[in-house]
Amino acid sequence: MGVGTYGETHRFYRYQHRKPRGWESFRVRYRETDLWIRTRLNLEKEAMEAVLSLRLQLERYIASHPEFLHSLAPLPDDPFAPPIARRMLEAAACAEVGPMASVAGAFAEAVGVSLARFSDSVIVENGGDCYLNLREETTVGLFAGPYSPFTGKIALRLGPERFPLGVCTSSATVGPSLSFGKADAVTVLSKNAALADAAATRLGNMVKTRADIDKALALAPTLPSIEAVLIVIKDKMGVWGNVELAPA
Fold it and tell me: Which of 77, 100, 173, 199 is the most buried (most CB within 10 A)?
């Protein structure tokens, strides 16, 4: 699968997966939410129900807490927030970014967890941010833009002991996500997909030149629950943590 991809017409990676027997793949869309999901059986109805429930919780919370939508800095914890909003608040506080920096990862994980009741293996991809809960080894391909020398050449090999796992990417050059850096791809691995998403934004904001890769990699171990980071800017790559690279 690919990470760091984007857009209605640019989600070509959704059609480049292997199609092994015993899996069902489907897409769930509601307003801005656009998920690609693979499970052991078709759970489109259950996935849509989860999406609608999560969006209702988050939209109601934002209506009464508009700063949640717009803040670029962490907000105080709110014990009365719905679970999805509180998870985003916690991730944002750990990564020192605004809560919406974690929304794609948080939604991917929440939907994936809800489907685990029906399927022993689940993949949820949300605009390049992924939640994976699998029983076999898999590889996740890197997409750092069409001109990157690393795109299509490198993948992350993940053994079954790593799952469940969030694999989330921030990019300043690919897709619509807000980034104050210049990195082509900052991919973060964490058991907490909301945190992986928020941390990818934090580290991505730091990388404005090739020389900034080392600074970002030095910060990565200080962020709780982060297992690995991969950073690409132009023709340079940096890697930290528990990750095995493999040919794509």
Answer: 199
